[in-house]
Amino acid sequence: MESIYEIIQKITPPDEAARAAAKTRWDSLAKPLGSLGLLEDAITKIAALRGNADAHLSDRRLLVFCADNGVVAQGVTQCGSEVTAKVAQALAEGHSSVSPIARAAKCSVTPVDVGILDFPGHPGVLDRRIRNGTADISLGPAMRRGECLAAMDAGAALARQCAEAGADVLLTGEMGIGNTTTAAAVVSVLLGLDPDTVTGRGAGLSDEGLSRKRAVIKQAIAFNRPDPDDPVDVLTKVGGLDLAAMCGAYLGAAASRVPAVIDGFISAAAALCALRMCPEAGKAMLASHVSAEPAGQILMDALGLAAPVHARLRLGEGSGAVMLLPMLDMALALYHSGQSFERLGVEAYTPQN
Question: Which of 58, 65, 266, 325 fits as disulfide partner to 245, beta carbons 3.0 to 4.6 Å?
Fold first, then answer.
């Protein structure tokens, strides 16, 4: 298996000729210029990534990275770590929350175990275990650096395998009790923001629980002193295995020239790590929605992305990423329709100053 650094070396710039061809096609359609807004931008970005203006998203795959976080011991969540394993099983059996959403969008769902606590395995859950959950970040590093890199390698390899199997688009999701805590810690460090600014209630904390969660994150950062200029160090010390694997998946998708749809807060935190490791990886990233977590819009701005969906989503499991697909399908229906100004016998719109 190639290392994440070898994967990064394979990430090339987007194809500007294909981008221009896609924009020309959009502008030839009988509608006001740019009138599908962010959806036009997404299709044009996909064309530039793939090097082909004839964009299609027929084969769509959601990878849900599942792992547990030792920081749960500090009372930062409403439920216990045992829920991670139960949801991973439900994902495999097709009856988790995202499952009916994904079926409606004709998207496959693959749960991936990168570190579920005491998980014996389950049919349909892909085994990519790195370790048995992470350590409590408030008392020390989440994992060893080599383990973080192994999780990244696993995520990148999966993305590349999906691409080789014909995936037109990858979607990222996660399942891991306590991962809004680790994601907030990562974002706080990378963006130099106070934990109070980026930390939310996750799956539903009380005021007291939120105060405790913020205090734990501050303690974790102070104790571990992660290097904000080294995303691997940040993930190693205050992150999680799911975040590291998703980071790798974004880099693997970019190297394979396959678009990767970001879900919510946790997925976006992982995407920020990938972007810091390789700015060119941003060519493959598509935003789906702005998370209801406090850092939702902050992360979109940091990634340089604009999300089409503003619906206060905070479900996780990749559900928000999947919800983008029907919107892209409708945009593609028009893109491939041939409903041009010439066909209608109407004078084309032109840019106006």
Answer: 65
